[in-house]
Specification:
Radius of gyration: 22 Å
Largest sheet: 4 strands, mixed
Number of strands: 6
Structural class: alpha+beta
Shape: elongated
Number of helices: 5
Order of helices and strands: HHHEHEEEEHE
Oligomer: single chain
Distance between the termini: 69 Å
Helix content: 25-40%
Strand order of the largest sheet: 1-6-3-2
Strand content: 5-15%
């Protein structure tokens, strides 16, 4: 009986927390769910459909805003990190800003220049692959032209 009471109190506290933390633009159904909340919800026996929806990661490129750039390869070349220009690189059609990455100082890294599509180099020759792109600002997408 004590265990059930503790579980019910935990669920109610969680519900109050979610409702209290939800911004005016969101409601409890669309509020982000933490791993701890997901585990607690699953223990209570709620459907796993809501759990799956809450843990699905959004595609950063799909979340484009109106200020995202669309550059051709030729236009990308002007973002080489030199003469005060930002340093951008493209990988798999996504343009990343490497301007504030110390190893891309002055738009150069290990003999490669910013302002280029480095998909082949990063995916096939780089020892770290695409891992180091995680967390970099996405500024646009590479387009044909």
């Amino acid at each position: 009986m004590k265990r059930i009471t503790t579980l019910i109190i935990s669920v109610l506290a969680l519900a109050l927390l979610v409702v209290g933390c939800a911004s005016p633009a969101t409601d409890a159904a669309t509020a982000p769910v933490t791993a701890a909340e997901t585990a607690e919800t699953t223990e209570v026996g709620e459907s796993s459909a809501s759990t799956e929806a809450a843990t699905t990661q959004a595609d950063p490129v799909a979340e484009e805003t109106s200020d995202m750039l669309e550059l051709t390869l030729e236009e990308l070349k002007q973002f080489d990190g030199k003469d005060g220009n930002p340093a951008y690189v493209a990988v798999d059609g996504v343009i990343y800003d490497v301007s504030n990455v110390r190893s891309w100082s002055n738009g150069m890294h290990k003999g490669y220049s910013a302002g280029n599509d480095l998909t082949d180099i990063i995916k096939n020759k780089s020892p770290h692959g695409v891992k180091n792109l995680e967390g970099l600002p996405i500024v646009g997408k590479l387009i044909d032209g």
